[in-house]
């Protein structure tokens, strides 16, 4: 797989992981991974996409990936972090378009990446030829507002880089508890 460095607004340390097809590219697929994931988890999917004739690219979002120190995991920026994530996707698209002009651009977002992809589609509709959303979701506005309030209180009390334990519980631990296998399985 090709590794292609590309600049982001905050730093120049991120790498675009690119899988190129053997023949002419039918299009470019940019994958946006989910929360608490990293680009390497998508290598098999990238290989499959390349085998179908498409350039497949993925990068680690801010605060994600194996090179991020533990205390910075999930941290995007001091301000406008979400906006930076969307802008990063456009920077990646521009880097890919410079190498593969005149082919369709397809954005594939999974989980948190699907929310970034949705925002990208609203901000840059003319740049997209197709949008694929995987593992996306919808929450009622009051629940989103409550999450935003909890996040702001957490930032005010502990700083912007402090993990939000209550939000983490509500988003992950409570849900994964429901996914555990039952104590007494009746099938082998």
Describe this protein's structure.
This protein is an alpha/beta fold and 188 residues long. It folds into 2 domains: 2-138, Alpha/Beta hydrolase fold, catalytic domain (Rossmann fold, 3-Layer(aba) Sandwich); 139-180, no CATH class. Helix content is 39%, strand content 16%. It contains 5 helices and 6 strands. A 6-stranded mixed β-sheet has the order 1-2-4-3-5-6, with helices on both faces. α2 crosses α3. The longest helix is centred in the middle third of the chain and has 19 residues, at 81-99. The relative contact order is 0.13.
The CATH topology of the largest domain turns out to be Rossmann fold
Outline type: globular
Strand content: 15-25%
Structural class of the helix and strand makeup? alpha/beta
Low-confidence runs (pLDDT<50, min 5 residues)? none
Overall structural domain count: 2
Helix content: 25-40%
Strand order of the largest sheet: 1-2-4-3-5-6
What series of H and E elements makes up the topology? EEEHEHEHEHH
The helix count comes to 5
Average pLDDT over all residues = 82
Give the helices and strands, then pairings.
Layout: E1 2-5, E2 15-19, E3 27-32, H1 43-51, E4 54-58, H2 81-99, E5 105-110, H3 112-123, E6 130-134, H4 141-158, H5 165-179
Parallel strand pairs: 3-4, 3-5, 5-6
Antiparallel strand pairs: 1-2, 2-4
Helix pairs in contact: 2-3
Name the descriptors.
single chain, 188 residues, alpha/beta, Rossmann fold, 2 domains, six-stranded mixed β-sheet, 5 helices, 6 strands
């Amino acid at each position: 797989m090709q590794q292609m460095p590309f600049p982001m607004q905050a730093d120049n340390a991120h790498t675009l992981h690119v899988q190129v097809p053997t023949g002419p590219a039918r299009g470019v697929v940019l994958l946006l991974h989910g929360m608490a994931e990293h680009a390497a988890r998508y290598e098999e999917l990238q290989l499959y996409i390349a085998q179908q004739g498409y350039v497949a690219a993925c990068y680690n979002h801010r605060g994600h990936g194996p090179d991020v120190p533990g205390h910075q995991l999930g941290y995007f920026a001091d301000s406008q972090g979400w906006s930076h994530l969307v802008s990063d996707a456009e920077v990646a698209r521009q880097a890919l378009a410079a190498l593969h002009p005149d082919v369709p651009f397809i954005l594939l977002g999974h989980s948190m990446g699907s929310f970034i992809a949705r925002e990208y589609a609203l901000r840059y509709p003319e740049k997209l030829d197709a949008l694929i959303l995987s593992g996306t979701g919808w929450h009622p506005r009051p629940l989103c507002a409550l999450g935003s309030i909890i996040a702001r209180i957490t930032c005010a009390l502990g700083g912007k880089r402090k993990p939000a334990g209550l939000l983490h519980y509500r988003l992950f631990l409570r849900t994964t508890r429901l996914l555990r296998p039952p104590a007494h399985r009746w099938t082998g």
